[in-house]
Specification:
This protein folds into 2 domains: 279 residues, Aldehyde Dehydrogenase, Chain A, domain 1 (3-Layer(aba) Sandwich), CATH 3.40.605; 186 residues, Aldehyde Dehydrogenase, Chain A, domain 2 (3-Layer(aba) Sandwich). Strand 5 and strand 6 form a beta hairpin. The strands form 7 sheets. A 7-stranded mixed beta sheet has the order 16-19-20-15-14-21-22, with helices on both faces. Strands 11-10-9-12-13-23 form a 6-stranded mixed beta sheet, sandwiched between helices. The protein has a 3-stranded antiparallel beta sheet with strand order 7-8-24. It is 37% helix and 21% strand. The chain has 16 helices and 24 strands. It starts with a strand and ends in a 12-residue tail after the last strand. By secondary structure, the chain is an alpha/beta fold. The structure holds 1,4-dihydronicotinamide adenine dinucleotide and 3-carboxy-N,N,N-trimethylpropan-1-aminium. 3-carboxy-N,N,N-trimethylpropan-1-aminium (NM2) binds next to loops.
Amino acid sequence: MFLCAVGAGVTSLFRTPWIAAVAAMSTGTFVQLEPLNYRDGARVEPADSCGTEKAFEPATGRVIATLQCSGEKEVSLAVKNAKAAFKVWSKKSGMERCEVLLEAARMIKEQKDAIATMETINNGKSIFEARLDVDTSWQCLEYYAGLAASMAGEHVQLPGGSFGYTRREPLGVCVGIGAWNYPFQIACWKSAPALACGNAMIFKPSPFTPVSALLLAEIYTKAGVPPGLFNVVQGGAATGQFLCQHPDVAKVSFTGSVPTGVKIMEMSAKGIKPVTLELGGKSPLIIFSDCDLENAVKGALLANFLSQGQVCCNGTRVFVQQEIVDKFTEEVVKQTKKIKIGDPLLEDTRMGPLINGPHLERVCGFIKLAKEQGATVLYGGEQYVPTDPKLKFGYYMTPCILTNCSDGMTCVREEIFGPVMSILSFETEAEVLERANDTTFGLAAGIFTRDIQRAHRVAAELQAGTCYINNYNVSPVELPFGGYKKSGFGRENGRVTLEYYSQLKTVYVEMGNVESPFESQ
Ligand SMILES: NC(=O)C1=CN([C@@H]2O[C@H](COP(=O)(O)OP(=O)(O)OC[C@H]3O[C@@H](n4cnc5c(N)ncnc54)[C@H](O)[C@@H]3O)[C@@H](O)[C@H]2O)C=CC1
Ligand SMILES: C[N+](C)(C)CCCC(=O)O
């Protein structure tokens, strides 16, 4: 597995002491030593490489792993291996696949603390949040385990006793490409429906967060998937391209930025491969004056500061109705000041470091530009150095609240992907709808109001894939998640995702004689 200060010499994920050792690990101790690719049911060094990438512990700035980016040869081996596993897995019944996925879900639940700890070390989010992410991960496996046996077609009666039926069949080898903000959750949200439908998957995590997908791969193997059904290749853009361009890859599911999404779609178009694109956002959160203010303030914090604000569906444009904007702003600032920033592995921390140094600089650059364009920084927005000396080189900042914002400012138009909330005031429902929809993105939107008719009227008009009424950023696996407009298409979670990982075959059955215009007289 890997060696670390508390786990030296322990080599199997499945030995209880290993789990206990990882769960008890402290910041600044982890070093990844074992291979980070996974093929044919085991960790392997890649067969070839197209460069290296360094992965960090954002809390301390330490390098925890140097990755060999998989080259064309390694990608081809992973595809070949996945094809072989697909032959076995796709022949299994839904109930047989269900049993394996349920066992994998059980193992994730059992190892929740260890997985969450690894996620926190590599991503920087608080352990409190990482545990919630692991919950949404095993829930996803359980949910699709339950749906696996429901993959069924239709029987259609035709004239003369003939009939037709449809079969819902898997696609083959699917590729999952992930972002760094929810590494384990993204791997589960893609692989669970893919595997439930009978596909194989090759997953490429972001090179910033290579570690936790391997834990999932080991769990799948231990739970009983055929070797090769879930492979992991590591690397950045070049490795991603080898995957998307491979002729034996049937589908690509991508989570990441809009510019990369465009490239993925272009590459997939050349092979006529279906794609799912989960891209960025600049979502509106609309707070009407008749709302429950305490809940609206909680919602605004959830909409902006989870995972240090590095969340695609965050409601960063907070539109507040004129009458309550002062009261709301005062309360939001009061609650934001209370957020404890620091060592993400400590139980009471609620905000850890951002993913890396360049990203921290980028986010701070947005705040500087906002000030130049006339916004007021009401609170935060500064780099932060925790008192613990081991955290000195981590990538921390204080959560930021901007007021005096207007719709044309860069901080209101562009995705910042950091803890920066822009507050804007509005007067009427018609006005706020127009302004909320004035964006090229359409991932999510939120509404706080006590008026039930207004809530549904506004939800119907918002151009967004998910609308939250009187809450924000909750993501039950039963509900589909995905974008409108440039935030992408296709869905993750929910029953509908089975359609994105399968194809429909029509079978016609003739019960009479063939009637043909070419018959001899
Ligand atoms: N809608 C959603 O569910 C989510 C969207 N995002 C979006 O992702 C972005 C942040 O994530 P990043 O990792 O920085 O995004 P990114 O687009 O830079 O990278 C995403 C993944 O694509 C890979 N990649 C990069 N270039 C590629 C290429 N040419 N071909 C194939 N693969 C390539 C990367 O190595 C990484 O694994 C934000 O814009 C955010 O909004 C993030 C999480 C969820
Ligand atoms: C879990 N949730 C809703 C907070 C975020 C999921 C989408 C993402 O990966 O950013």
